[in-house]
Amino acid sequence: MQKILPKKDLPKFINNLIKKYELIAPIKTIPTKFQKISNFKEIYLERITQVPAKQHFQPENETLLEFKNNKAIETTGEIKKTILFGLRKCDLNAIQILDKVMYDKQYLIKRKNTILIGLFCENPDEFCFCNSMQLENYHDLFLFPKGSNYIIDVQTSKGKALVKNLPDAKYPTKIPNPKNSKKLKNLNIEKNYKDKLWEKDADKCLSCSACTVYCPTCNCFDIKDNLNLDLKSGKRIRHQASCQLKSFSKVAGGKSYRDSRISRFKHFVYHKISYYKSQHDRPMCVGCGRCLRVCPTKIDWVKTINKLKVKK
Amino acid sequence: MTYQPKSYKIESIKNYTPDVKLFKIKSNLNPAPGTFLEVSIPGIGECPLASCSHNKNYIELLTKNAGNVTSAIFNLKKSNTIFIRGPHGHGFPVNELENKNLILIAGGTGIAPITSMINYIEQNKNNFKRIFIYFGFRNEQNILLKEKIKKWEKEFKLHIGLSSDPKNHDYEKGFINEIMEHHKPTTKNTIALLCGPEGMMNATTKELNILGIPNKNIYWSLERRMECAFGSCGRCQIQDLYVCKDGPIFRYDKIKLRLDNENSNQLKK
The whole model's pTM is what? Predict the structure, then answer.
């Protein structure tokens, strides 16, 4: 089902939604990110956000349990009806990927109470390679600009309820993929694990973990307990963790299972391209290019994969 | 999936070495052999521990004072409260082990999951053929679960090797693979279950291969860092497999290539 919204009516449409929902959209902070807005004017849609939308579903320092009087009670925090607006196809697919690896109450309740409104990406940059990553449609509503209108693609009943007053499109519009100049040519890299080419990238890697912080599908976390000053009550809290840090795989007694930098670097790339695929039939990478944009030593692992010998 | 733990009372504590204790906890969780529990103390944190028994009325946790949480567990006293979530993971494939000869091998605190399997064997004796048990410890002071071992010695073929106790004459000297060379187990229709440091499991697996047991008949119990215990947090990944939900018990031929790949990076920094 597709609906039509004149471009000039988008601010009114969004401001109406703000009255009923908490609306989260890209804003022009440094770095650009998804944040709660109170007026359409705050929205910044010109470029892909630097920080992905994952923080909305898995916020830093999220409380999982509260302790009091020798009892532990699971909490999910305050839940508000939320709309995430301005998600590009890569952002939407990243949420689809998270949906398959996050099973806890805290995530699921936030996910259930969120409506996803996507927006066609008109301005991919030199780092974008989303067309290589088998992206699918995964949205409640998706806006595609056509002439002076937006064609709104409706996928779910949650989305349908928001556009019930808009006119139906007379004939269906096929929504194209964004234009990419970059390509990832090979997704079958299982047999290239020991290739020497990886060493060049790993030598440049600083293990700074920026790629994992900015990656929209990096969900790995740490669980820690915080005790209040009374030394009796407190919280069990979830933090973002990164496989690029040595402590990530450290067990009691001090052994770290990915001790060398190259093992951690390859773990990131292989998890994105190969490991997730072996369990879920699609790569975990969505081709948004955020890891490439943010890397302080400009490691381009996409280029490296393109240079690997294709082994099937 | 939930992070909600339940509270339990510690029924008794037994000291084995200065840094290993056995906590007996009243509970009807009855974890399947080889599975693990997320054990926690509010305010300190949570840690995964293998269940060291298979019993309807209690859980036993063999705890080594090695990390943040275990050192706090170590300070608990009788009738203190402890929080537990689980059991989690895939244990030993008990149905596939039926009508087989079994070799159970453990090094150090790796004896915990093997003990839960021995409990299961004791309760279902007719399901299994001959049982061979090999335990390895550093020296006589480090031998764990002595009173249980005494009982098992009467029921099963059991050998203990001490790796660095030159003067002791009551026990044999050597690593498990060396002990096994002298006291060979049956190898036909046989499955081996291993738990211990990976170096020890490697050496023992090589010896088992020499004796004629293929990798598909060998199971490893693996240790990795775990936070969530259900495949979300990514901490326990060995390439594409999660130790928490795909393991902690793995058929060795299915995990070997992945371990080899990860270990191939070890020499580089």
Answer: 0.93
- Structural contact between residues B42 and B53, judged by C-beta atoms closer than 8 angstroms: no
Mean pLDDT on A202-217: 94
Distance from CA of A279 to the nearest CA of B (A): 8
| A42 has a pLDDT exceeding 70 | yes
Rounded CA separation A26/A33 (Å): 5
Looking at the domain B6-88, which fold is it? Elongation Factor Tu (Ef-tu); domain 3 (2.40.30)
Looking at residue B86, its pLDDT comes to: 87
Q: Do B3 and A101 touch (CB under 8 A)?
A: no
With 0-12 / 13-18 / 19 or more C-beta atoms within 10 angstroms meaning exposed / middle / buried, residue B57 is exposed
A250 and A118, same domain (yes or no):
no
Q: What's the sign of the alpha-carbon dihedral A96, A290, B228, A110?
A: negative
A188 contact partners, CB below 8 Å, separation of at least 6: A274, A310, A311, A312
pLDDT tens-place string over residues A272-288: 999 999 999 999 999 99
Q: Which of A67, A193, A259 sits opposite B261 (nearest CB)?
A: A193
Contact at CB, B67 and A252, closer than 8 angstroms: yes
Q: What is the mean pLDDT of residues A177-199?
A: 91
Same domain, A16 and A148: yes
**ipTM for the complex shown:** 0.91
Q: Which residues sit opposite B28 in a β-bridge? A: none
| Inter-chain touch B237–A263, beta carbons under 8 Å | no
* Same domain membership, residue A151 and residue A16: yes
